[in-house]
Design goal:
The complex is a heterodimer of chains A (805) and B (162). With 805 residues, chain A is an alpha+beta fold. Helix content of chain A is 29%, strand content 23%. In chain A, α10 packs across α11 and α15 (503-515) packs parallel to α16. Chain A is globular and about 100 Å long. In chain B, strands 2-1-5-3-4 form a 5-stranded mixed sheet, sandwiched between helices. The longest helix of chain B has 17 residues, at 140-156. The chains are: A alpha+beta (805), B alpha+beta (162). At the A-B interface, α1 and α18 of A face α2, α3, α4 and α5 of B.
Chain lengths: 805, 162
Amino acid sequence: MSVPGKFRFVSSDRRVREDRRFVVGKGNFAADIVPQGVKHVALVTCPHPAARIVSIDKSAALAMPGVLYVLDGPELAGATNMLASGLDTPNVPRYPLALNVARYAGEWVAAVVADNRALAEDAAEAVVIDYETLPFVLDADAAYAGGTLVHEAHGSNVLLDRTFTWGEVDKDFAASPHTFKHRVKWGRSSTVPIETFGVTASWDPWREILDIWASIQMPKYPDQTAMALKIPMSSVRVHYDVDVGGSYGVKRGIKHTILVGYLSKRLGVPVRLIEDRLENMRGGDMHGPERFFDVEVAFDGQGIIRSMKMRALDNVGAYAGRSPFQLGKPVGAIVGPYKIKSVQYQAIAVVTNKTVQEAVRAFGQSPTNYALERTVDEVANKLGLDRLEIRRRNMIRHDEFPYLIPSGSAYDSGDYHTVVDKVLAHAGYDELIAERERLRATGKLAGIGIAACLEPSGGNSSFEPLLNPKVGTTTWMDSCRISVDLVGSITATMHTTSAGQGHETMVGTVVGEVLEVDPDQVRVVRADSLNSLPSNSPVGSRMAIMLGGAAFHAAKKIKDKLVAIAAHDLGVPLERVAYKDGSVYDTTAPDRARSWAELVTMAHRHIHKLPAGMEPGLSVSHIMPVPMGGGLPTADGRVQMYPCYSFEFHLILVTIDPDLGKPEIKRYVLGHDCGTVINPKIVRGMTMGGIAHGIGAALYEEFAYNTDGLLVAQNFMDYLLPSAHEVPPVELVHHETPSPHTVFGQKGSGESGYLGAPAAVASAVNDAVRPLGIVINSLPIKVAQLGDMIAQALESNAREKQKGN
Amino acid sequence: MKVELNINNATHAVEVEPRTSLLDCLRDKLLLTGAHAGCEHGVCGACTVLVDGAAVRSCLMFAVQADGYAITTIEGLAPGPGELSPLQDAFCETHGMQCGYCTPAMILAAHALLSKNAQPTREEIVDAISGNICRCTGYTQIVEAIALAAERMRGQNDPVRP
């Protein structure tokens, strides 16, 4: 997949070392870790979308066998600080258990602790809670308008309402002969990993350490745990060698952790909470964005889009976590791959009586891409232009990078037109159109879907200071430590968990590349939070850039030290020696060399042979800041938000059975450019998985609520996940435009596929039903709804025809 | 109550409650943690084990119902410490997984297929794993792994030509 000969191990199709433990069932997942004497939590949840908690009667539950304790909201809130929220919203307090008022159906009201999970569940049913139901609001428009308030003390339902104007929006609109405006909706779905969230906490009152094993993927996890539990961060030991069974953003069980952490301290035993599926889906607080986009664009007769106004209204559910920041990330790629000169962006987050939103793969970028791509399709339609041609005309050209977008980020590199051309050549675009026409001639509905989008990667969390001026974050580092022991083996340490991204393989590959040793000889381990260097966890498609970069620089420090030792011992200047395959030789007399073993021994044992003042041993660390980062947003909200921008271009063919309304993806071609690929198997896998996830969001997955405010899709019978039948074979077309800002030219790819697949599917379905006069601007496009729309359209078309006769 | 379970060719006498699922029994009583709970209502397939060679959801079967059957878990597939079965090796070769959570079940479902069908088509492979949900991979590299394993296992039985 890469330029041959450029690297020795990077980009080669090597196996993924983590796989060996998983194929034999020896992963180390949160539920597999069972400390002696651990007790189990089950939850009592609110059955109403909004209710005052009048009383909690624990007596029957406490009398049941094996039950230790029943915890309620007032006790927990009295003993802990409220959970951190991203925005400055002190009057929207959030605790793990509802405090006096429950604000969504499924919210945790009490926690039962028992000898095993089954006994805890039995007792949870015996906790008697008296509720007084309250008015509730589910819809974002209604919540924004006011009326029923989710948090009285906050005074409104609006957590965030900020309008940015970048460039001469009014002038560009006035100067454009055409405008187009529409509303599109992104439905409430999430990543829904197969492993639910699980956490075990064990407080040792003599050592004063809280040990935590959790299926966590979260920045700031140990610090937020310490702050909420009112203990020093040096008393929190998060074990990072826990395998996380899928996350894609959402595994941020901070409320679960505070709950079991408190219980362990309170009861003096290890306590664990492994969510069941119901707890996970309605009360785990891991739903994704649910957004209305009102998009208006101004363009000329050639289809050149000059300006855009986008209003994004996000329904974040009942409490404010980090999720409103998901309206901030898209600022870093607000114009997608297009040269739109000016943008007005209004970002609104409202609370409603729905389950709380959490970070989902791409952190809000995928919905925004969908809104933008739907708009581009409609502009093409309005002008009667080909959807490909309009994209080509608006896309940034290869020679225009670095390209500064109106919202302040400079895109690093890209070659969008070449990727598009490669995809068209691979797919045989004319043949694909002919195939669509053939299918239409047989009475099927058929459509071609097109979507182009960017994957901002390696971010420094600049949406924090952008949306909350009290936060001054300007970097978002990651780290690596490398030690070479006295017999010469190499151990690299990483400082966070992984959820299937193959970070151990990546670190091994990078260290092997730099030190010119077989990557399989590099041991990679994970620290715990008490002996770790700073990390911000695998978020924002950052690990190839940030952990890969940190590993590179740490390995380079080891290499530099070996070179210095050799030069000193050989008695020649530094510039006269060279490093090769672990040994160092005199370039003027290659026979004069010091081997790896000799150099390692000198470093560890022979201080008399080391350059004066050199530290003995071979242990180094590197803490890497985000490339291109460091600046705060300007007053009008411009900031370099991400260093690297990957590109993807989707081209698909969809048929729809007109009687059932069932879409079927007949062909899926994806052009993908994430710069230098470190491990092709990993990048391919994440891209394929992202597409499957995107197909789910486009066609199947929705946390639907009924008018009573109850979540009606709370198990896998109602919340539909794509199986192997629903995901078509995907043809990947590879391209590499290296980033100038990273050590190997790599960019991020953890969110690839998911960023564009929903837009591509929506594009194809709309192309298929457009002949019937149908426009679909809402995701997911469910079979039943689509079937009804087609039937109605066919019926009314037939009536029209009859009238005409 | 007491049950005798034949698991991976060894007999285990276990004391379980009548309501204990086979999954909970395997994980909690026998520490065979390769079987995973995903949905616990029979949809995701993460808890799949083999019962007399057939792929079965261990979350939908009581431990007491398993008495008298030959149960195979993922722990029973590797030929020895540090070794992999051809199917397990094929999953590593194609990287037919990411987080590894659905993987043991996926391999057992594939194992059940290949023990009956040495030359499955893509459709047959897709059918065999369609009751196992994977959120990471989009299934592509899983299907490739099973096809590769089938090919290699067929090759194993070919006569050596001079």
